[in-house]
C-alpha cells in the first residue's frame, strides 16, 4: 500500500524521516528497495525535501490475521490512524479471536491493504479507547511518544470503598509477584510507575475515580489502587470483594496526542460502557 506524507519543513530526506523516530535500518531498506519517492520521483538519501512536497512510501503488507467478522466501534479514522472503542472480554492480539482479527475483517471489507499495528495495549476486561496505526512511520512516532510518557491517557474506574485522600499521586515501583502468576506488586526493585488519581463521586460502598498515567506499566492502575486499599470493583486478582460487576471496572476514557503530520493536538473521548454506567 502507498502511504503519503506531506512535508512540513525543508530538510534532508533522511533527517526528515529520522525526526519521526524511524530506525536507520528501516530508512536504509526503503532506499535499497526503491520504495520511497518525492513528488513521484525516485530520490537518494541526500535529497532535500521542501515544504508541501509529498513523500510516498510503498509499504509491504507483512502482518496478516485471520479475519473475524464482528462489529467494530470506530471513534476516528484517517489514512494513518484507527481509534477504536474496545468492548470488554476481548484481547488485543491473538491468532483467531482478538481485536486484531476484527480489525483485519474491517480492512478486508473496505479494501484497506495495510499492516495492523496496535500502538498500546488494554487488558482483556478493560473497555474504551485503543489506538491502531496503519504504517511503519506512524508506529515509530507513537512508539517514541509512549516511551517518553508524552502520550496522555485518562481512565475512569470504580473502586471498592472510599479514598482516604480525594486526589493524589501514587509514585511506587511495580514488579512481578513471585508467588502469583500474572500479578504485580509494589516493589522497591520494580520499574518506575506513577499514577495520578482524583475522586469524581462517592457512593455507599464504592467510588468513581479518574486516573491519569505518567507511566504505562502492566496492571499499573489495578496494582496501585490495590496498594491504596481500594482495589477496582470486580478485580479478584487484586483483592476486590464485591459482586457488583462481572469484570474489572476499568475504562480507557480519553487520549490526547500531537498529530504527527499536522502537529495539531488531538483529543478523543469514549463514553462509559453500560455495566459501569449502571453503577453510577
Please provide a brief summary of the model.
The chain is an alpha+beta fold and 280 residues long. 19% of the residues lie in helices and 32% in strands.
Structure, explained:
This protein is an alpha+beta fold and 280 residues long. The protein folds into three domains: 2-58, RNA-binding S4 domain (Structural Genomics Hypothetical 15.5 Kd Protein In mrcA-pckA Intergenic Region, Chain A); 61-148, 2-Layer Sandwich (Pseudouridine synthase), CATH 3.30.2350; 153-252, 2-Layer Sandwich (Pseudouridine synthase), CATH 3.30.2350.10. It contains six helices and 18 strands. Strands 7, 8, 9, 10, 11, 12, 15, 16, 17 and 18 form a ten-stranded mixed β-sheet that branches. A hairpin with an 8-residue loop joins strand 9 and strand 10 (127-133).
> From N to C, what is the helix and strand string?
EEHHEEEEEEHEEHEEEEEEHEEH
Give me the Rg, rounded. Answer: 21 Å
Choose one word for the global shape.
elongated
| Structural class label | alpha+beta
How widely separated are the two ends? 45 Å
Q: Tell me the CATH architecture of the largest domain.
A: 2-Layer Sandwich
Number of domains: 3
CATH class of the largest domain: Alpha Beta
Give the CATH topology of the largest domain.
Pseudouridine synthase
Q: Helical region count?
A: 6
Major sheet, described briefly? 10 strands, mixed
Mean pLDDT: 94
Amino acid at each position: 500500500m502507498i502511504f503519503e506524507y506531506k512535508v512540513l519543513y525543508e530538510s534532508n530526506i533522511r533527517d526528515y524521516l529520522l525526526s519521526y523516530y524511524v530506525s536507520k535500518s528501516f530508512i536504509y531498506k526503503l532506499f535499497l528497495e526503491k520504495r520511497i519517492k518525492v513528488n513521484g520521483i525516485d530520490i537518494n538519501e541526500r535529497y532535500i525535501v521542501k515544504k508541501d512536497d509529498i513523500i510516498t512510501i510503498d509499504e509491504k503488507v507483512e502482518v496478516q490475521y485471520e479475519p473475524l467478522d464482528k462489529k467494530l466501534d470506530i471513534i476516528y479514522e484517517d489514512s494513518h490512524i484507527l481509534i477504536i472503542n474496545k468492548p470488554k472480554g476481548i484481547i488485543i492480539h491473538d491468532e483467531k479471536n482478538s481485536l486484531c482479527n476484527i480489525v483485519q475483517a474491517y480492512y478486508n471489507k473496505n479494501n484497506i491493504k495495510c499492516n495492523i499495528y496496535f500502538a498500546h495495549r488494554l487488558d482483556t476486561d478493560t473497555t474504551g479507547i485503543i489506538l491502531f496505526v496503519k504504517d511503519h512511520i506512524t508506529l515509530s512516532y507513537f512508539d517514541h511518544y509512549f516511551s517518553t510518557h508524552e502520550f496522555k491517557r485518562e481512565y475512569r474506574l470504580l473502586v471498592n470503598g472510599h479514598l482516604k485522600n480525594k486526589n493524589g499521586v501514587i509514585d511506587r515501583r511495580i514488579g512481578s509477584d513471585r508467588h502469583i502468576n500474572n500479578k504485580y506488586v509494589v516493589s522497591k526493585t520494580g520499574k518506575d510507575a506513577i499514577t495520578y488519581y482524583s475522586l469524581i463521586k462517592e457512593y455507599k460502598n464504592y467510588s468513581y475515580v479518574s486516573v491519569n498515567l505518567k507511566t504505562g506499566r502492566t496492571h499499573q492502575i489495578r496494582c496501585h489502587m490495590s496498594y491504596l486499599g481500594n482495589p477496582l470493583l470486580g478485580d479478584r486478582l487484586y483483592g476486590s470483594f464485591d459482586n457488583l460487576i462481572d469484570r474489572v471496572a476499568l475504562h480507557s476514557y480519553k487520549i490526547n496526542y500531537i498529530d504527527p503530520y499536522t502537529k495539531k493536538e488531538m483529543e478523543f473521548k469514549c463514553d462509559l460502557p453500560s455495566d459501569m454506567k449502571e453503577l453510577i
